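Structural prep section.
Before we set up the soaks we want a predicted structure of the protein with zinc ion in place, mainly to decide which crystallisation condition to try first. Input record follows.
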Amino acid sequence: MAETKSYLIKSAQVVLTMDDDRRELAAHDVRIKNGVISEIGLGLIAESDEEVVAARGCVVTPGLVNTHHHLYQTLTRAVPGGQDALLFGWLKTLYPIWARFGPEEMYVSAQVGLAELALSGCTLTSDHLYLYPNGSRLDDTIAAAQSVGMRFHPTRGAMSIGESDGGLPPDGLVEREADILNDAIRLIDTHHDPSEGSMVRVGVAPCSPFSVSRDLMRDAALLARDKRVMLHTHLAENEEDIAYSLANFGCRPGQYAEELGWVGEDVWHAHCVKLDDSEIALFARTKTGVAHCPCSNCRLGSGIAPIRPMRDAGVNVGLGVDGSASNDAGNLVLEARQAMLLQRVARGADAMSAREALEIATRGGAQVLGRADCGQIAVGMRADIAIWDVSGIESAGSWDPAALLLAGPTVVRDLFVEGRQIVRAGQITSIDLGAAIARQNRMAQVLAS
Ligand SMILES: [Zn+2]
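Run finished without errors. Recording the tokens verbatim:
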């Protein structure tokens, strides 16, 4: 990795810090040194080794955090048979296509998905890869994240119950449970870095209660605790999901999770659209995190997650774009806007402010992913910073440029991850994005033929 430069972000119109006091600092400067935010103040003088980044007319925020994704799905966007299906039908359409993927498809789709996230202000993302056809490995996506320069929390997903055992996925896409656990151990030992400022943390993530056994859920939790890594899965996504849980496990998803050790501050669950009051209380009590994916929930008609009651109860909530086959975009700032709008649909115009939705997208996500070193602009925090140009048409006439999600750009101007600039003037600097997109489109054509 190249040596980290020092930067002075100068004269921001406002810095939305998301710090403990949620300070909004007008005309402030932010200094970045050795990958960390070293100083915040008025009228700071640039040092000789610093590059000055002029931020007049810009809103500066912490980098956005994406807590749920399936990056490989950027290769299967808008697949006709899956465009209008509910979750289970959608999966059954896509499984046979995903079964043809290999390492190259995993690498390129992740690279494009990560670049798309970066352009929308994201500096830290998790990923959930739960199928490994034709020699694919989680390592393929980690290499992609390193090429883009994204802070990355990949999770070793898995499916073990195929159609012939009453599960949803085809038998060819499921793995033996012993192999799954052994590969998770290999990945943690090879890639997981628990230190402050870490660029890669690996999690353990059986796909969902309806695609793995009770034993694997329990063993995954034991392994994660033994290795001190986080646990992730899909939970309570829609009514079909609840019905499956009641029919097969005799309880609701929250109870099932609790019984198997799947609650705690080292666990986060995607969706949770259908959590009831007792499950919300359980998640709050145990500090279990939620990855809210509003666009995917709309796209698949799953419902409106009770984010207002979750936040009021004290549940840690982050935001996720979910896989690119169920969104089908991967724009995290638009996802934050959607989160704000969707709570209002269910609960009225005062149910969620633009600032609160942005807080969920930054500080909230960092908390869900166990990153006390990210998600805010404060001295000592990692230098993960997004700069939004609010001098353009999207913000023209805005009385409150800090209300970015009401009237603001949907592409970031500049983006820093661990003090390295990976977006400059709205362009990815770390990879040849045009070449990656062309490669991806060629792969999509082959898969569609
Ligand atoms: Zn998902």
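Observations: The longest helix spans residues 103-119.
Flagged for discussion at group meeting.
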